[in-house]
Write a structure and sequence with these properties.
The chain is of the alpha+beta class. It folds into two domains: about 15-120, Alpha-Beta Complex (Homing Intron 3 (I-Ppo) Encoded Endonuclease, Chain A); about 125-195, no CATH class. Helices cover about 25% and strands about 20% of the residues. The chain has helices at about 70-80, 110-120, 135-145, 150-160, 165-170, 190-195, and strands at about 15-20, 25-30, 35, 45, 50, 55-60, 65-70, 90, 105. The chain has a four-stranded antiparallel beta sheet, with helices on one face. A three-stranded antiparallel beta sheet has the order 5-6-7. The termini are far apart.
Length: about 200
């Protein structure tokens, strides 16, 4: 059974504070994204770390077991409730360090990705550290296949990628945000070299 929260002396009067769900009497979270520990009776503000170098997170301890969770999830769970099935946290201003309740909402992955694109924080394309291609490469691939007469295998060999990657780009399954450049005209030499002739 949870008890009333002892407000930290430093907390502004207009800041709300609630127990972290599942950690009542042990941890509390404010609507400004601060976490307080109550293990020693009096509230102590906890330091957060960066999860995957992106999101502030914190380690929570209960019954000698430790679990980590992101601050934005703890804020939403405490003040809004558990996420609907398949939903994740959205940062409305695109700032992953801003974990104020007013900046957070549960949303679908599609909506969250749309937010990232809008804010310029999406890791698609070249921003993805797994990407082997650049935007210029993808535009050239879209020009080469199929209009040049080269096969997917030939194009994939030219760029050092899997043939399936060329297929995914052509069929709009990946790199969907990149439009092809102007349609080139070709000659035999250009076909062999992969150069585009305006």
């Amino acid at each position: 059974m949870s008890t009333a929260i002892t407000r930290p002396d430093c907390l502004p009067k207009d800041t709300r504070i609630r127990w972290v769900p599942g950690y009542e009497n042990l941890y509390a979270v404010t609507d400004t994204g601060d976490i307080y520990s109550y293990h020693w009776g009096t509230p102590r503000k906890r330091k957060v770390s960066l999860y995957s170098k992106r999101y502030p997170s914190i380690s929570l301890s209960k019954n000698k077991k430790k679990e980590s969770d992101s601050v934005h999830r703890l804020v939403l769970k405490a003040f809004v409730g558990d996420p609907p099935k398949g939903h994740e946290c959205r940062h409305l201003d695109g700032n992953q360090m801003n974990n104020r309740l007013s900046n957070l909402e549960w949303g679908t992955p599609k909506r969250n990705q749309a937010d990232r694109i809008k804010h310029g924080t999406s890791n698609r394309g070249e921003r993805n550290h797994f990407a082997k291609l650049t935007v210029a490469d993808v535009r050239k691939i879209k020009q080469l296949y199929p209009s040049s007469g080269m096969s997917q295998a030939e194009v994939s060999k030219m760029f050092g990628i899997n043939r399936a990657t060329v297929s995914y780009i052509y069929h709009g399954k990946t790199w969907t945000h990149i439009k092809p450049g102007p349609t080139p005209s070709w000659n035999n030499e250009a076909k062999e070299s992969g150069e585009i002739i305006p």
